[in-house]
Amino acid sequence: MVDDPTLKSLLEQLYNSEFELDRIRSTAGNKSELVMVAEEKVFRIKKDIQENLDNIRSNFNTELAQINNAIANKYSLLSLVPEKERGLLEINRQQSIKNNIYTFLLQKREETAL
After folding, report:
1. DSSP SS3 for 33
2. What is the DSSP letter of 30?
3. Among candidates 64, 65, 18, 68, which has minimal Cα distance to 39?
4. d(CA 44, CA 57)
5. CA 89, CA 95: separation in Å to the nearest integer?
6. Which of 21, 105, 112, 113 gives 38 a disulfide partner, CB atoms 3.0 to 4.6 angstroms apart?
7. Is 25 helix (H, G, I), strand (E, B) or coil?
8. What's the chain's average pLDDT?
9. Cα 25 vs. chain centroid, distance in angstroms?
10. Quick one: pLDDT at residue 37?
11. Whole-angstrom Cα distance, residue 82 to residue 84?
């Protein structure tokens, strides 16, 4: 649902203008100058509504493009996770090897001290 105050105002103006046009037609006839003025007013309001809707659509498309770009950026970050995970596993493996060597050397030192 579009919650645009300008659009709401234009739709209200259109409703009132069409009501007024129908009232003038019923009293002055279809070819009266007042009818033509009222028809022109209705036409202008409809044109303004179309322009407003085009602007709203354009804004939505811009917002959609920004959201799609944000999603693409998040996906690219997610694609880096396996690479970073491999790096972290390698660091953990190296740490484990160094801990084992350190423990082994401590044991050898104790054995030679005895």
Report:
1. helix
2. T
3. 18
4. 20
5. 10
6. 21
7. helix
8. 93
9. 46
10. 95
11. 5
Q: Please count the structural domains in the chain.
A: 1
Rounded CA gap, 28 and 38, in Å?
12
Alpha-carbon distance of 13 to 19, in angstroms, equals 10
Instruction: Report the C-alpha gap between 65 and 20 in whole angstroms.
Output: 42
Residue type, 77: L
**Torsion (CA) 50, 53, 57, 59 in degrees, nearest 10:** 120
3-state secondary structure of 59: helix
Helix axes 33-113, 5-28, angle to 10 degrees: 170
How far is 78 from 91, CA to CA, in rounded Å? 20
Looking at residue 80, what is its pLDDT? 85
Residue 7 and residue 49 in contact, taking contact as beta carbons nearer than 8 Å: yes
**Residue 92: which domain range?**
5-113
Q: Is the pTM of this model over 0.70?
A: no
Token pair recorded at residue 102: 């350190």
DSSP H stretches of helix in the chain: 5-28, 33-113
